[in-house]
Amino acid sequence: MTESTINALVSPEGSLEILSTFEVNRLKDKSEGGLYRLFRQCALAVLNTGIETDDCKALMEAHADFDVRLVPQPRGLKLELVNAPAHAFVDGQMLRAIREHLFSVLRDIIYSYSIPQSASGLRRDDPEGITNLIFHILRNARVLQAGRHPDLVVCWGGHSINEREYQYSKEVGHQLGLRALSICTGCGPGAMKGPMKGATIGHAKQRVKNGRYIGLTEPGIIGAEAPNPIVNELVIMPDIEKRLEAFVRTGHGVIVFPGGVGTAEEILYLLGILLHPDNADLPFPVVFTGQPENAEYFEMIDQFIRNALGDEAASKYEIIIDDPARVARTMKQGMKEVETFRRAMQDAYYFNWMLKIDPVFQLPFDPTHESMRALELHRDQPAHLVAANLRKAFSGIVAGNVKESGIRQVEERGPFEIAGDPALLAPLGAMLKEFVAQNRMKLPGSSAYEPSYRIVSGAA
After folding, report:
1. SS3 state of residue 429
2. 3-state secondary structure of 148
3. By CB count within 10 A, which of 17, 62, 142, 168 is most buried?
4. Which residue ranges make up each domain of the chain?
5. Would you tell me how many other CB atoms lie within 10 Å of the CB of residue 457?
6. Whole-prediction pTM
């Protein structure tokens, strides 16, 4: 049965800044240098909010006849949608949350790509320029709120989790909401939606009127993790590295729920940064949490971290099993410590300027068969570089699992090969097998998982 579609002319939710002729033409441009394909892909993902899929390529192919066009108006512009998924509408009217997200996509794509690559202070090959660019994108999206005390908890975890894990993440969110803490996630389903949904109830009970549910995504992943409708502040960062930096610059603490390779990538990114000597005294609460049946999962993660990065890395987080209230109290106390530190150092509450991020974590990694095979996966290097290279390996697996470009590469040339020190790769292989066994690579009910990677013996 063919899914029903609808044609519609959609007005902006709120106000949209006037676009220049150059910006409009780039959005219409279907050539390699244009933005049409990128905009269409992100718009289609937003329109599929609530649909369980984690395959960008399949989503695009299923809606090959979908089109989005800009219609200039005397007082701004509208979007003409052709063959849009009908489930994005109620009685012919687009859901308000989806309409907000659709114009957030337009705002961020225009802004990110209208800044010249060589603009002073915003160069994308310069560490300070990258951080400055992230700041500007977040400020343009009105995410940065001066004067607001630290209250933003970043929640990471898998999009492919079972119902009990989802309910647990929702209860943790509820406890956070009861303590007037706000939520930032990757904006998708599963452990990204649960904490937000729980927090809405906690905020309602405490009559919190300004609760925040921030979703940070990027074009390569948005189709696999379409924004859930609770997100009230959606931001599309240019790539995964800038998305990860936006999490740690804006968030004041992190909670990690069970997940797969994407979650492992986030953990390694965070620990690699916190291990930098310049960040030794910087308060940043991190909690790994789950139900009793997740205890073995976190023990596996903990052992992998200790083997790869050492015991110092393990000292950067606390594991709390089956105690949502304790998780929330730990975060609330952490917020107080962050506030005290930022005030003493005269650093902003809304953007963590003092956090030192090594350029190896900032420069975009393009997963290809050559770049994956060339990763330096051995322990004869500083711990933060081990974390950086492992992060890239997980990023490549994520690309092969759910990103359109990665899926195509694996289809054409076979799985990505991962090579290096057996002492590092044996635990990595065991953990990946466990992710597959626990159905953490793909959404439940989707086709059987075909590995996008192959671990090979010998150095790269």
Report:
1. helix
2. coil
3. 168
4. 5-106, 129-359, 363-455
5. 8
6. 0.90
Q: Give the CATH class of 5-106.
A: alpha beta
Q: Which ranges of 154-294 does DSSP label H, i.e. alpha helix?
A: 163-178, 194-205, 219-222, 240-250, 261-274
- Cα gap 174→325, rounded to integer Å: 9
Instruction: Identify whether the C-beta of residue 191 lies closer than 8 Å to the C-beta of residue 166.
Output: yes
Q: Two tokens at 438?
A: 């626990």
- Long-range (24+ apart) CB contacts under 8 A made by 409-417 are 409/367, 409/368, 409/369, 410/452, 413/369, 414/454, 415/451, 415/452, 415/453, 415/454, 416/367, 416/369, 416/372, 416/373, 416/452, 416/453, 416/454, 417/369, 417/372, 417/373, 417/453, 417/454, 417/455, 417/456
Closest CA to 285 of 155, 134, 146: 155
Architecture label for domain 129-359: 3-Layer(aba) Sandwich (3.40)
Q: What span, in angstroms and rounded, lies between the C-alpha atoms of 119 and 159?
A: 36
**CA angle, corner 107, sides to 101 and 109, nearest 5?**
100
DSSP string for residues in 195-209:
HHHHHHHHHHHTT-S
What does DSSP say about strands 152-156 and 182-185: parallel, antiparallel, or unpaired? parallel
Bridge-based pairing state of the strands 5-10 and 76-85:
antiparallel
pLDDT tens digits along 23-46: 778 888 777 667 888 888 888 888
C-beta of residue 199 within 8 angstroms of C-beta of residue 172: no
Length of the chain: 460
Token pair for 178 = 């009861």
CA distance 193 to 187: 7
Domain 5-106 and domain 129-359 have a common topology: no
Q: Which residues contact 212 (CB under 8 A, 6 or more apart)?
A: 151, 152, 182, 183, 184, 232, 233
Q: Residue for token digits 């303590």? A: 179
Please list the ranges in the chain whose pLDDT falls under 70: 1-3, 13-18, 32-33, 50-60, 74-76, 116-121, 223, 442-447, 457-460
